[in-house]
Amino acid sequence: MQGLEAMGFKEATPIQQQAIPVILEGNDLLGCAQTGTGKTAAFVLPVIHKIVRQSTTGINTLVIVPTRELAQQIDQQIEGLGYFVSVSSMAVFGGGDGISWEAQRKSLVQGADIVVATPGRLIAMLSMDKVDFSGIKHLVLDEADRMLDMGFFDDIMRIISHLPSERQTLMFSATMPPKIELLARKILNNPHKINLAPSKPAEGVKQQAYVVFDDQKGKLLLNLLQNLEYESVLIFASTKIKVKQIFEMLKSKKINVEAFHSDLEQSVRQDILRKFKNKLLKVIVATDVLSRGIDVDNISIVINYDAPGDPEDYVHRVGRTARASRTGRAITFIGKLEQRKFAGVERLIGYSVEKTELPGEIGKGPEYNPERRSQGRKPKWRRPGRKKDAIDQGSEYSGRKSSKGKDEKPHKRFTKRNRNRPDDEA
Question: Are residues 355 and 214 in the same domain?
Answer without folding.
Answer: yes
